[in-house]
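// run 5 | inverse folding | seed 20
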């Protein structure tokens, strides 16, 4: 049987043992600043406000479901990363978390660079005016056309992911009369998960060139010989939603080991090291992420120490946070539809979106919290499961949550920390239309990605 195959019904109908659930929060109306965007609060009527605007007004104007993005918070987080790493390092925002032209402009203004991993992301970045030399181009299977476009545009670096790509990029760059700056992505043999550090099966995945067996060293050797390439550094990305810095520590140790090997063999000290992204955020009050300045300090110290040990000049460090910048800045607001109490189990609360706007719960068993946001309530908490409107029993937005017992159809509820990997992974499943992204700042709200329409759907269906 396939490892992931499971009968969807029984799996999701599992009833957890009594006492499994944490107690309901002391105050269901409280909005934990750890999971909500910076400018979120409640007004005197009890409605959630963001950037000074009540969510009820946003829902009226833009409809539901909608992703509401706190631009002030986004800029503050981007700036915090930039400041934490200072002028001797580079911060590349990972566009895969969420990308739109407005976001590209904010990043540009705040002095960040951008990591893209497809022709589509590259096109978005360029069309919003991100200078090409501040763009890094990633991917394990970049097409010839994508490479061509990236080199022609003059991207600051292409992160090479395989032996074939080394030859391919060199050839394309040369044919265009260019020398392309490149980093080589290696797999260092660590796989980091939240709170966990697993050193097994690490090389059994599609990204990068394994350090093991001298493959990464061989890749650098080959790349150094090619006229079309300027090898500027080594790249390592160890995973996502990581809280524990020990994975980065081992990764940095191994990358620096390779830099030393390259220096000893070729007399070349590569000037850059990229430690990737993957820094975790709080999805629920139980999560404790680190601040950018703590992360910057820890990573810089690790690399400096390792380089001193290897008698190498400390290379310029770069990082690629996606989730840690955009994740906490947005929430998804839904309207409550049907409410179905199942005796002795829990109450199913259906909303007007679901797995098409947030696949992370179904895909990764991700945990979220949820709050009533159109009003406050003093009713007793009820154990709920927030589900979507799709034709699947696995269509779950929040698996276990407490909402007030007087919840009623028409109420608005919101799920915080949906800024990363929700809109960017949204689908049209069941021909449900993808929600808009509304940016809010200083009392103003504007659509930065509009709601999909039935016309959009039918335009692609050529009959
Ligand atoms: N750099 C590289 C090379 C990456 O592959 C990624 C993420 C990042 C940076 C940014 O990672 P972040 O800081 O956002 O964790 N869809 C999954 C996450 C996939 C991440 C893929 N690569 C999720 O929803 O959790």
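// decoded
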């Amino acid at each position: 049987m396939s490892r992931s195959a499971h009968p969807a019904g029984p799996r999701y109908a599992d009833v957890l043992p009594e006492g499994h659930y944490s107690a309901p929060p002391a105050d269901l109306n409280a909005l934990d600043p750890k999971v909500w965007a910076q400018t979120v609060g409640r007004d005197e009527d009890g409605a959630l406000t963001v950037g000074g605007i009540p969510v009820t007004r946003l829902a009226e104007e833009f409809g539901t479901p909608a992703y509401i993005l706190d631009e002030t918070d986004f800029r503050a987080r981007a700036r915090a990363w930039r400041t934490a790493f200072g002028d001797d390092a580079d911060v590349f925002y990972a566009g895969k978390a969420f990308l739109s032209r407005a976001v590209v402009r904010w990043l540009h203004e705040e002095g960040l660079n951008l990591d893209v991993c497809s022709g589509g992301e590259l096109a978005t970045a360029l069309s919003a005016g991100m200078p090409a030399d501040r763009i890094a181009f990633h991917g394990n299977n970049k097409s010839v056309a994508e490479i061509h476009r990236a080199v022609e545009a003059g991207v600051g670096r292409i992160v090479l992911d395989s032996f074939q790509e080394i030859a391919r990029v060199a050839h394309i760059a040369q044919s265009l009369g260019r020398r392309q700056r490149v980093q080589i992505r290696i797999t260092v043999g660590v796989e980091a998960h939240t709170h966990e550090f697993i050193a097994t099966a690490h090389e059994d995945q599609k990204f990068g060139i394994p350090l093991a067996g001298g493959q990464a060293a061989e890749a650098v050797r080959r790349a150094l010989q090619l006229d079309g390439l300027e090898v500027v550094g080594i790249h390592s990305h160890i995973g996502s939603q990581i809280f524990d810095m020990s994975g980065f520590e081992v990764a940095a140790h191994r990358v620096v080991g390779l830099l030393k090997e390259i220096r000893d063999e070729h007399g070349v000290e590569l000037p850059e090291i990229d430690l990737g992204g993957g820094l975790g955020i709080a999805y629920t009050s139980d999560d404790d992420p680190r601040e950018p300045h703590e992360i910057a300090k820890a990573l810089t110290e690790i690399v400096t120490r390792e380089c001193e040990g290897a008698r190498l000049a400390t290379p310029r460090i770069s990082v690629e946070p996606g989730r840690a910048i955009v994740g906490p800045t947005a929430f998804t607001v839904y309207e409550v539809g049907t409410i179905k109490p199942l005796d002795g189990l829990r109450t199913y609360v259906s909303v007007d979106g679901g797995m098409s706007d947030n696949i992370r719960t179904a895909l990764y068993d991700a945990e979220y919290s949820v709050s009533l946001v159109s009003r406050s309530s003093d009713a007793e908490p009820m154990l709920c499961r927030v589900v979507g409107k799709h034709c699947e029993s696995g269509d779950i937005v929040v698996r276990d949550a407490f909402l007030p017992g007087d919840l009623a159809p028409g109420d608005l509820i919101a799920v915080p920390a949906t800024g990363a990997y929700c809109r960017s992974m949204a689908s049209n499943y069941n021909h449900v239309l993808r929600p808009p992204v509304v940016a809010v700042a200083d009392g103003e709200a504007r659509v930065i990605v509009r709601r999909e329409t039935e016309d959009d759907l039918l335009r692609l269906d050529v009959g």
